[in-house]
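Quick illustration for those who missed Monday's session on complexes.
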Amino acid sequence: MSNWKPPGPPERWGGLNHLRAIRSDFREFSHSLHQQYGDVVTYRVLGQPVYQFASPALAHEVLVEKARSLHKPDNQKRAFGRIIGNNLFTSDGDQWIARRRLLSPMFLPQSINRYREIVLRRAADVFEQVSEGEVDVSRTANKIALLSVAESLFGARVQEQSDEFLEVATRLQEAVTRQILSPLLLPLWIPTRDNRTVRSSLKFLHGMISSLIADHRQSSDERPTLLKALLSATDSVDGTRLNDRQAMDEALTMLLAGSDTTAAALSWSAFLLAKHLDMQHQLRMEVNLLPADNMLSAHPTGGLQLAEHVFKESLRLYPPAIAIARQAAEPVVIGNAQIPRGALVFVSVYSIHHDSRWFPDPEVFEPRRFASEPESAIPDHAYLPFGLGPRACIGHRFAMMEGPLVMAEMVRRFDFRLIESSREPELETQLSLHPRNGLRLVLRRCANI
Ligand code: HEM
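Prediction with protoporphyrin IX containing FE bound:
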């Protein structure tokens, strides 16, 4: 057993100083700890030991080698579980293994391809309604991300209620974000403003999904949706299926996990392209070379190669999940540190992505980092926007289909620039890493559109 105690910041008032720093800006706090103390850091918050790891090898140790000893943190389970039950995101152990086995086939490449058309249609519709001039691109990105994942999950009927759906889903996201970042999670029955929002939003979404499930049971519509896949998925080992309630909870999990992250990534990609007009121009040339109706069949590694590199580089500079959290289910050694049972463990994705040991000139936007095949210049496990190991993002192929496709559609339709004299957006850690107060850009329609 190792007796080495990692370095860390001094504790004041029982760690209240750290709690304040975490609540004010978790990314800033954890990144500055990495810069000051190194790859392994420890501190306590109100008696709770916390360990932070920030190197590719340590990330691999936490998320792959020692995955069995490290579970999803209790506070994440409580915060999400009370809203969406026991689901893929929050479960652990045998229950998670069975659920992941059941749901994985839905996200195989051949399954994902069916949703390209939906994403492109939703992006086209939303961009069609955007007027020229100053636009909050974060809102536009959020609309596209929510509607794309919603229609992929639930089918075209979502469009009938799309305005109400967008409003409710956005309000739910905002309330859940505030609740997860708050140290005091009041039971849902206490009528605080956010609790009321959560309850009324869930009522609407449950009603909508129940009626879609009933439709699905009765109709012979052959068009695939993720919800149909959820309802008909059969476990390859024990033959079990999800009941309606479980399918509804998994669908909501995907809606929440898949929209805020993708919306954040799209906003940052738009910001980077507005800042680097040469790259925006190159990307527009790449897109305009494709035959008009060919965006759908353009495989990211074929026709939309540069769009894919831009999206990947944006996920490196601004990873929506800045850190991946675990809790020690038993005592475990990571690196040379002895982690006690119950301790919180963070892998600092943001710090690894901004470390010059793994990415030369880490603050420079350079999509070509991802151009060599296979991305050999990037050390193993140094690039982890979707996590690593058994719990890595189940939707990453969906996101890597959606991101480049939406970017391509945006540059095809608009020339977009930073607002003169505006400052770089500040970073804000909500559920995902967003530009604080949204992202305003100036949009002009391209001549041929
Ligand atoms: C750019 C977009 C996205 C990013 C950056 C992202 C990031 C991540 C990360 C880092 C994890 C791992 C969390 C952990 O290990 O604790 C994760 C898990 C997950 N993601 Fe994503 N995600 C994205 C898009 C999506 C989409 C589109 C969906 C679904 C349609 C989705 C559904 C999920 C689910 C269900 C999990 C839990 C998987 C499990 O625990 O087995 N994500 N995501």
